[in-house]
Fold this sequence. Notes:
- Two copies of one chain form a homodimer.
- Chain A contains ten helices and eight strands.
- The first copy, chain A, has 252 residues and is an alpha/beta fold.
- Chain A has an eight-stranded mixed sheet with strand order 3-4-2-5-1-6-7-8, sandwiched between helices.
- In chain A, strand 3 and strand 4 (99-103) form a beta hairpin.
- Chain A is globular, with a radius of gyration of 18 Å.
- The interface between A and B is large, with 53 and 52 residues.
Amino acid sequence: MKIALTGKGGVGKSTLAAMIARVVRDQDNKVVAIDADPDMNLATIFDVSRAREITPIIEMKELIAERTGTEVGQPAPFFTMNPKVDDIPESYWVDQNGIKLLVMGTVQRGGGGCACPENAFLKSLLGHMMIARREWVILDMEAGIEHLGRGTALGVDYMLVVVEPNRTSAETAHRIRKLAADIGIKQVRVVGNKVRGPSDEELIRKACEGLDVLGFLPLSEQIRQISTGETSLEQLDGETLEPVRNLVARLS
Amino acid sequence: MKIALTGKGGVGKSTLAAMIARVVRDQDNKVVAIDADPDMNLATIFDVSRAREITPIIEMKELIAERTGTEVGQPAPFFTMNPKVDDIPESYWVDQNGIKLLVMGTVQRGGGGCACPENAFLKSLLGHMMIARREWVILDMEAGIEHLGRGTALGVDYMLVVVEPNRTSAETAHRIRKLAADIGIKQVRVVGNKVRGPSDEELIRKACEGLDVLGFLPLSEQIRQISTGETSLEQLDGETLEPVRNLVARLS
């Protein structure tokens, strides 16, 4: 299963990506979580203090070129062989409690350019990678919609759009659905997040009319504390994870 | 004065941009607010229902080429003449209660490409534009850090980084300060937002150690209601705007 978490900034993409990763790992799946946002924060949510040690996968580009003798910019044999998740060299991930965490790459220098090369490489990698049964690849996408112009998440099984009870995040969801359709992603599902009660659910359902709502997650002090470091992903209790398990059950 | 609002997604960049716009307009300044996020939502915060009618400024590129006979891609006389804010044709903005709202441009089609051309054009326009006294240009930047790789906000007087009481938005602030320095922006100031009390201020100060904190804005139900459409920018009362006025006073 390949899924991408998308949505307006701050809606809770990374936190939901991490919670889904934990839930499917607990169900004995292999899990790869990829931070596809140059403004990387998935490692922080996973509480990986060694985040800086993770070599961004963009650097595989040079490695592949070097090993195979192909020039950068040419289609590499690595891709035509349809690599498996396990073919990614160890130096490009950190294992955090059984979840492999990868990062796409970041902006190294102000004025140094856009993140187009990073996105293009990730797109190739994802497009060619063979995903086995009981293997989950979870992509935490950049906030907003530019990645859809780039088609970075091309070929995911599901694109989840996280929405909060407000207008702007719902507008982003509508844009994402339209742009996702352009690149052939048909399974786009809204997840309503930080819901304080029935009126928030109603607000989201109304603002997301025409979109397919997969489910809702309540506003949770425990989940908020992940953002401050007071709680860790592994400390989340069964009750907090229950709505996430329900979402996952509706996907698989 | 040219300022850019930056920060992790969801921290409140657009809302603060709109509140600053209102405060400086109330002080009899000319105000231009530019939505520099392809995932446009500044118009929604301003309650501009005609957002779709705003022609994105990227389309000026063709207009300039056409009018001046230069080819797209060549430096255009429009820029070398150092245009004033008033030189931007009327079709590229909407006047909302005395604030001129412009949008950079969005992603038109999934797989259609990145937002590099839009960012490059905005960068040229901003770089050459003459800003008069009592004239404010307020840029609402895309979430995250990619715009800093592109140097879109080159030449702003201040870059404000909005931070919430959590780790990830503070990490983004540190990245922004570093990348902003690379493109020569020295005046980078943190604004702590959605602060619930002294412990949140303390959390932000600690997480932003080494950064220059301009001030704090309290968590406000009235401001949250802007996001749901229950309150409008013009309805915000003096008390709610007071901390914003204080921030502005420290800038000018």
